[in-house]
Write a structure and sequence with these properties.
The complex is a heterodimer of chains A (463) and B (315). Chain A has helices spanning 3-28, 43-79, 83-86, 90-106, 115-153, 160-200, 203-208, 232-263, 266-281, 284-305, 315-340, 343-350, 356-385, 388-393, 411-419, 428-462; strands at 31-33, 36-37, 212-213, 228-229. Chain A is mainly alpha-helical and 463 residues long. In chain A, the strands form two sheets. In chain A, strands 1-2 form a two-stranded antiparallel ribbon. A two-stranded antiparallel sheet of chain A has the order 3-4. Chain B is an alpha/beta fold. Classes of the chains: A mainly alpha (463), B alpha/beta (315). At the A-B interface, helix 12 and helix 13 of A face helix 5, strand 7, helix 6 and helix 9 of B.
Chain lengths: 463, 315
């Protein structure tokens, strides 16, 4: 039986176990009065308990068996091969074994397939079948055994609810740890690759170097720069563009939020808010060509008209468009927290003769500040991580400049350019991407820590 | 049985009024505890008592020394009329208590007096309302300035999320009442002393106001209102969220403050109305049924509905 069928049958068995357990609990219980039974837990808990007893061991075995059986079967097949193949080198042997497995799975012999290989393939197939049969039998036996043992435990005084809840708690702990462990995994992998990078490029050169030119030759016959990996231009570029974006998004977003939550009537609010949230849903690549084809030329023409000479790809163009993109993050979250400030707070202020704007500035905004800071920081991390708009509108030149009219580049853009096209994974050029990733991760981590700190500080003060 | 009991208490009232008021209220409470066991016959009886017609206000709604007055006051929430033709005066330096069952319009009427209802878009107020003879709903009157003259204390203590000092200084800073920092310090101290909170908070002026206990928070709100130096203070069930000790403190405070301010208070506690107020107004289903001297309302009410309410036949 294939794994799908085993799973479906197992599910049916579990449902059957649930019904059995539930029915049995009602049967063994005695009615005390008015439909109340002397059961410790409600009947469906006994049902769940049976299903869990049957399900957990059999699923575990199924998982382990499916995970390990191909390697066990393969090694069994390999050990039965004739001695001339056994004596081959390791690489050649694994090649032969692969051939055998392909032969067994496709079922088609070709010119290469010699007699011993065909025999081995047949052997492999029979082992596979035995394993599958054994797996089916063992899994179902475990499930049925679980049901039988579980049913013996169904007694009025048995604490089924506590058992079920304990298992559910472990399941939840498991789910929570998956997210955390994934994060740890990513961090560790980035960290180790970065360490590789720092073996060829000194840490201080990376962190304090002001020249970025990673295009080294990866083959002998290529023409390339000598390679310099100073990340400062990238960090300043990222900061410049993010700062421009936030300068645009924070005031506009905050004003929008105040208008929507305090002044707009219900009709305006019900239309404006979803429309604004659509902004957040537009793919960034669309923003990117909007920035490159509309905003950047506009900035260049305007700049030239007033006697400046902006480059055709500028930090300003990317920053402005990115600012528009993150407005909804600021406005939507701020709107929610401003609306959540209790009406009693506003009434108290109005009741003392404060005007609406005084009330908003001095009572509502301070009370909503933790949420607003949260929204702004979310917007900031979006801005720092944004790639597409910058690639298209700000260019790839790693200039160390604070002039928003010049082309700059950001960390994320450089990661993209480092990892596209021809590459080999032990050259500093490729590994630099991991170091940049680590830097980006550190920056956003610091931002998050600051935001948590700010929010906690104001929470203490305001709640 | 209830009628017989009230009859006997009526005789006792002549000798000891305050006690009897408390007795009556106690009767009401014990009765409402017993309410579960009432039969349906009693419910019909109760509804009849509820259905007495109201033809204008009885008692003495008008006074000589007027601070605020309302004539032909109607209030609408959308299409629903919440208040019907209320005519009443609030005298200078008096405490007017407004009592009545839930939803009778007493809080709505209170919010008419400082135009707090303006903040509710669907609310519409008609009639003539005056403060010191000035029409408070005229075009010339700015509701913001009015509210500086007619302060308000709310049911739930609502200190701002600021320090104790800033809470009290808030209104004074807004209205530019003080010029220097030391004047502001003095004003904050004076207001807190008058609200009876100074001793408890004088060392913690820069701690958040939200960290105080419920009773302290309510006194902070009163201090904050006093700091703006209003002429009238409106209180909307100011002690309903507080324990008896905090309530007693605030009631003492109200009596003290009435020397300087005119106070209108909405309360669900009839003992409270009896303890603090000079005059009591009884509202019923949006109508003002009876206004009179507090002693008179609680000992010898003119209207049958008032009597039914204070003796606990319903409500």
């Amino acid at each position: 039986m294939p794994v799908n069928f085993i799973l479906i049958t197992l599910l049916a068995l579990l449902i059957f176990g649930f019904i059995l357990g539930r029915a049995r609990s009602i049967k063994v219980a005695t009615e005390v009065r008015n439909g109340r039974y002397n059961l410790h837990s409600r009947p469906y808990y006994y049902g769940y308990m049976i299903a869990l007893w049957a399900g957990i061991p059999s699923l575990l075995i199924l998982l382990l068996w499916t995970g390990f059986d191909s390697s066990i079967v393969t090694s069994l097949t390999a050990s039965d091969l004739p001695s001339e193949i056994q004596e081959l080198s390791k690489d050649e042997r694994s090649l032969v074994i692969n051939e055998i497995i392909n032969l067994a799975e496709s079922g088609k012999a070709d010119v290469n397939s010699s007699e011993p290989k065909l025999q081995a393939a047949a052997h492999y197939l029979s082992l596979k079948n035995i394993s599958l049969m054994a797996k089916t039998v063992v899994v179902f036996a475990l499930a049925i055994l679980g049901i039988i043992i579980g049913l013996r435990f169904v007694k009025p005084e048995f604490r089924a609810r506590n058992q079920v809840e304990k298992i559910v708690r472990w399941v939840m702990i498991g789910c929570a740890s998956i997210a955390i462990l994934t994060t740890f995994g990513i961090v560790l992998s980035v960290l180790f690759e970065s360490l590789q990078f720092f073996k060829s490029v000194p840490f201080t050169d990376f962190l304090f170097g002001t020249h970025w030119n990673p295009q080294t030759a990866i083959r002998e016959d290529q023409v390339g720069g000598s390679g310099s990996f100073g990340a400062i231009p990238l960090f300043t570029g990222t900061l410049l563009i993010s700062a421009i974006a936030l300068t645009i998004a924070v005031p506009i977003g905050l004003m929008t939020a105040i208008y929507l939550s305090e002044y707009a009537n219900q009709a305006v609010r019900s239309i404006a808010k979803p429309v604004l949230e659509i902004l957040a849903g537009i793919p960034t690549v669309v923003y990117g060509f909007f920035a490159a084809l509309t905003v950047a030329p506009f900035i260049r023409e305007t700049g030239e008209a007033i006697g400046l000479h902006p480059s055709s790809e500028s930090a300003l163009a990317a920053g402005v468009v990115m600012g528009v993109m993150i407005i909804p993050f600021v406005s939507s979250l701020s709107d929610d927290v401003i609306s959540a400030v209790p009406q009693a707070m506003r009434d108290g202020s109005y009741g003392m003769g404060a005007t609406k704007s005084e009330t908003i500035r001095q009572v509502v905004i301070p009370a909503a500040l933790p949420g607003i800071v949260g929204g702004v920081l979310l917007a900031a991390s979006r801005a720092i991580g944004e790639t597409m708009i910058v690639v298209m509108a700000a260019g790839l030149a790693a200039n160390l400049t604070a002039n928003p009219l010049e082309a700059v580049t950001t960390i994320t853009v450089q990661i993209v350019t480092l990892l596209t096209g021809d590459q080999e994974f032990d050259s500093p050029k490729t590994l630099a991407a991991f170091a940049l990733g680590l830097g980006l991760f550190t920056v956003t981590l610091i931002l998050n820590v600051i935001s948590l700190h700010v929010v906690r500080k104001y929470r203490e003060q305001y709640e | 049985m209830v009628t017989a009991m009230t009859d006997t208490t009526k005789e006792k009232q002549m000798t000891d009024q305050r006690d009897s008021i408390n007795d009556r209220v106690a009767n009401k409470e014990s009765e409402s505890n017993a309410a579960d066991n009432r039969s349906s016959m009693d419910d019909i009886h109760k509804n009849e008592e509820f259905d007495i017609e109201i033809n204008g206000t009885v008692g003495k709604p008008f006074v000589d020394n007027v601070k605020m007055s309302s004539r032909n006051c109607d209030v609408f929430y959308g299409d629903k009329q919440a208040i019907f033709d209320v005519n009443v005066d609030i005298g200078n330096h008096e405490i007017l208590a407004m009592i009545g069952p839930s939803g009778c319009g007493k809080s709505t009427y209170l919010r008419v007096l400082n135009r707090m209802n303006d903040t509710i878009p669907i609310c519409r107020v008609t009639g003539e309302h005056k403060l010191d003879g000035e029409d408070i709903y005229s075009k010339k009157m700015d509701p913001v300035l009015l509210r500086a003259r007619v302060g308000m204390v709310f049911q739930k203590p609502n200190p701002f999320p600021k320090s104790i000092y800033d809470n009290v200084a808030y209104g004074a800073k807004l209205h530019g009442l003080v010029r220097t920092r030391s004047d502001l310090d003095d004003l904050v101290e004076k207001s807190l002393i008058r609200a009876g909170l100074w001793k408890e908070v004088k060392d913690d002026l820069h701690k958040p106001g939200t960290g105080l206990s419920g009773g302290q928070q309510q006194r902070l709100c009163i201090a904050r209102t006093i700091a703006v130096d209003p002429e009238v203070i409106l209180m909307d069930e100011p002690t309903s969220a507080l324990d008896p000790i905090a309530t007693a403190l605030i009631e003492e405070l109200m009596i003290e403050l009435s020397g300087k301010y005119t106070i209108a208070i909405v309360t669900h506690s009839m003992q409270q109305a009896a303890r603090v107020s000079n005059r009591t107004a009884y509202f019923h289903l949006g109508k003002l049924v009876e206004v009179n001297e507090t002693d008179k309302v609680f000992t010898n009410p003119e209207h049958k509905l008032t009597e039914n309410y204070i003796t606990g036949r319903f409500g």
